[in-house]
Design brief:
3 helices, alpha+beta, about 80 residues
């Protein structure tokens, strides 16, 4: 959905690694992720393919920011993005 808030949890080298990363993150941050679906988005960057692990289902951008703040405090990658 255009304008939807998402949290980008990392860039990985394959969809399979993204699924494993989701399982790991769900264990550590489950309180922020209850009922939130995830998606792995393929992107071409610098002549190569990466896979972006994103979570969505937030009521607003502030919800995505709260998740990212918690992850950043643990030195984990996360930033909020908006679907275009």
């Amino acid at each position: 959905v255009r304008g939807a808030a998402r949290g980008q949890l990392g860039d990985v080298g394959s969809a399979g690694i993204g699924q494993q990363a989701w399982a790991d993150i769900s264990e550590r941050h489950g309180d922020y992720l209850v009922g939130k679906p995830h998606v792995i988005v393929q992107a071409e960057v610098g002549g190569g393919t990466i896979y972006r692990l994103r979570v969505h289902g937030f009521a607003d951008q502030e919800g995505a920011r709260r998740l990212c703040t918690a992850r950043n405090r643990q030195n984990a990658e996360c930033y909020s993005v908006t679907m275009n």
